[in-house]
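I had to read the description of the data format several times before I understood it. In essence, backbone conformation is discretised, so a fold becomes a row of integers matching the chain in length. I therefore recommend that a typical entry be quoted early in the introduction. For illustration, here is how one protein appears when written out as sequence plus structure tokens.

***
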Amino acid sequence: MEIFVLTITLVGIGVMFRVLRLQAAFMLIGFVALAVALMPSAGKYSQYVPTSAFFGVVAIIAISLLRAVLGVLFGRRAADSFTGSILAAIFSSFIRIFTGMVRALFRVR
């Protein structure tokens, strides 16, 4: 819970020093309020959903929220570029791991 209070405080400081626009500040505070409201239900539903599916949904929501927050702070194109490069790095690392395992399986000595 301390992270939410810290986030709201930092948003307020950003508005005071005119680093954030008021619209962006309200959107960030809305994201924090939404996260606080959804936390109890996420814990309740995590018992009934398989672990891999739950983490997949959490990862998709986290990336979507990151893109939305970055879109508010830095602009839509910068957010798209940032999230695209993060997703490309994640997927390419999984593909490298998979191809390395297949290569090691069929290695001829």
Observations:
- Helices lie at 2-16, 22-45, 51-74, 76-105.
- The chain has a mean pLDDT of 86.
- The longest helix spans residues 76-105.
- Residues 84 and 90 are 10 Å apart (CA to CA).
